[in-house]
Design a protein that fits this description.
CATH class of the largest domain: Alpha Beta
CATH architecture of the largest domain: 3-Layer(aba) Sandwich
Number of domains: 3
Strand order of the largest sheet: 16-15-17-18-14-19-20-21-22
Helix content: 25-40%
Largest sheet: 9 strands, mixed
């Protein structure tokens, strides 16, 4: 329950009206930020609320300004219930005459201005002790009226006095339904989901008590539920869940039974436990996934098709990949190379965002590799084959122009979920170049982006990003590490981290796989003394270990011959030629 603040303990200075923000007497001394003005005070209305500790305060004189009328205390003259009304309650609502009598429901003729006539009505009588405070009337045509100028109170107020637990429902008939099931410590809000003010006005009713929320399972009910939790405090609230198809407590006893409602009550849970259970992984699911892996049903990472790489790097679904490298060391190229390998060997599709390179130049790189020579020459001699490869690239690589990580993930979600494109991964290159509208500092923005990308990778598609190292790491010229990234937020989230490094004056690019989180599904660290070496030119890439072993001289020639991603191009005849076929430019002529 919210703590209450004595109004006189609030330091308002010289203010006598309006709204101000001041320090909270209940929590400011115990907080790190002791200068925070977390208490919002409406001096005019005599109300205060702390946005940090949820304490509240009400000025006494405000309460005394309102004068309510007390209705005639003649309700006992109308306790006789007609057979028609008793039958309606029993047949339509599952409420017995015994419950109606015990809850002092009566029947009375009352004037309904909306129909401009007196009508027979159910009277739900609201008592505080032995005094009738107000009555709410319901006609057979579902018209409602309440005794005018009377005080609003909870329906069933007498039934919760001296109780350690209070059940809150949204209507009088739901209160009667719990009574029918033998549960009596129940109150109903007087005006359904539309009025939350009683929880603040009568806050003392709920002090040191558990509050069980059993409101309707509809939009208004969910809104009321949130407001009750806000007023009472989550740690003091429990929830009752109704069976599928039942909106409220009366639906449960009408559709099922009172025993079913009692079962719902016995299965009530605290909101803290509900939140905690969402965070705890199911042991049943974990055991199933473990067995699936042991028995070969969990998919291993997809191979690049290059034996030396496949020992260390594989394409895994819903993973977070991080590449670190100094500016100008070829981060964009190594990622393009890896993505192109994945597309050739596995048909994978990627959404790419290059912030420091033009889309057409990156596309040209791909075409040069696929043509296994200069694409300008290949286009002249083999235009039909070029068009086939061009279309293949367009199918497997989407280039997007975005400014923020939010825009990138939202674009990918739209293409995956709305357009049905099976995007394996998004590429953000480099992550340091994306903007943010947030007023937070760069470290906090990086943390937010890292969390967003991790969530996206786990739920939607894999994420591949590149990052610059911090300036101090770049200045040394030594081998950098994934941990040298600016801020370090992305390394802690990555499931595979790798580094590209090149010694000064060398054309050899070292690829160090530093961390593979789930080695059971493929991938492993490289030997720091014998990393993978990639040597690339605009039209050709070779790969080996640093010691020269397991060398492949032309990676894409090897992959295209192995997987034939474009089918058999040997039968293509170009215009103006009797039998001109796909014939790549020899490498010795390309340079």
């Amino acid at each position: 329950m919210r703590k209450k603040i004595n109004w006189d303990d609030i330091n308002l200075g010289n203010k006598t009206s309006g709204q101000v923000k001041v320090k909270c007497p209940n929590c400011s001394d115990s907080r790190n930020n002791k200068s925070d003005r977390s208490l919002s005070v409406n001096i005019t209305e005599g109300k205060a609320h702390c946005h940090y500790c949820s304490s509240v305060s009400f000025r006494e004189d405000v309460k005394e300004d309102v004068v309510y009328e007390v209705p005639p205390q003649d309700w006992s003259n109308y306790t006789s219930l007609s057979d028609k009304m008793v039958k309606w309650f029993k047949d339509s609502r599952g409420i017995s005459q015994k419950t109606l009598v015990e809850c002092m429901v009566s029947e009375k003729e009352y004037f309904f201005p909306q129909k401009n006539k007196n009508m027979n009505a159910i009277a739900f009588n609201y008592f505080d002790g032995k005094t009738l405070i107000t009555s709410k009337y319901r006609s057979a045509e579902k018209d409602f009226m309440q005794t005018p100028n009377t005080k609003k109170i909870f329906y069933g107020l007498n039934d919760i006095k001296n109780c350690n637990e209070i059940i809150v429902v949204e209507g009088e008939i739901d209160k009667l339904s719990f009574w029918e099931a033998g549960i009596k410590n129940v109150i109903s809000v007087p005006n359904g989901a539309s009025d939350i003010s009683l929880f603040e006005r009568d806050a003392e009713l709920f002090e040191e008590k558990k509050v069980v929320i059993a409101v309707d399972k509809d939009r208004n009910g969910r809104k009321l539920e949130k407001e009750i939790i806000s007023a009472i405090g989550k740690k003091h609230c429990l929830k009752i869940d109704f069976p599928y198809g039942c909106k409220d407590a009366n639906d449960v006893i009408s559709t099922h039974s009172t025993l079913k409602l009692l079962e719902c009550y016995e299965n009530r849970k605290s909101y803290r436990l509900i939140d905690a259970e969402k965070r705890v992984a199911s042991s049943e699911n974990i055991n199933k996934q473990t067995r699936d892996f042991l028995e070969g049903r969990i998919e291993l990472g997809m191979k690049t098709g290059i034996p030396i790489l496949d020992k260390h790097f594989v394409f895994k679904k819903n993973e977070f990949y991080l590449l670190t490298g100094s500016k100008g060391y070829g981060k964009s190229t190594i990622h393009q190379t890896l993505l192109l390998m994945g597309s050739i060997s596995n048909g994978l599709k990627f959404m790419t965002s290059f912030k420091e390179n033009s889309d057409w130049s990156m596309n040209l790189n791909l075409m040069n590799y696929l043509c296994r020579g200069w694409s300008k020459d290949f286009l002249k001699t083999n235009p039909k084959a070029y068009s086939i490869m061009e279309s293949w690239v367009a199918e497997h690589f989407l280039y997007v122009d975005v400014d923020s990580i939010d825009e990138l993930t939202e674009t990918a979600e739209a293409y995956i979920e709305d357009k049905g494109i099976d995007i394996f991964a998004i590429l953000a290159d480099p992550i340091n170049s994306y903007t943010s509208k947030s007023s937070k500092n760069s470290y906090d923005v990086g943390t937010d982006n890292a969390n967003k990308l991790l969530k996206f990778s786990m739920k939607t598609a894999s994420v591949m990003i590149s990052q610059h190292p911090n300036l101090s790491a770049q200045r040394t010229g030594d081998l950098i590490s994934s941990t040298d990234g600016q801020g370090g937020q992305y390394y802690s989230k990555a499931s595979m981290a790798y580094v590209i490094h090149r010694e000064k004056g060398s054309s050899l690019n070292e690829l160090h796989i530093e961390n593979v989180r789930t080695k059971a599904t493929g991938g492993s660290q490289t030997d720091p003394e014998n990393p993978i070496v990639i040597n690339w030119s605009p039209t050709k890439i070779s790969i080996s270990y640093l010691d020269g072993s397991e060398r492949i001289d032309d990676v894409f020639e090897y992959l295209i011959d192995k997987y034939k991603p474009f089918g058999d191009l040997s039968d293509i005849k170009e215009e103006g030629s009797q039998a001109e076929v796909f014939n790549p430019t020899p490498l010795n002529e390309a340079f």
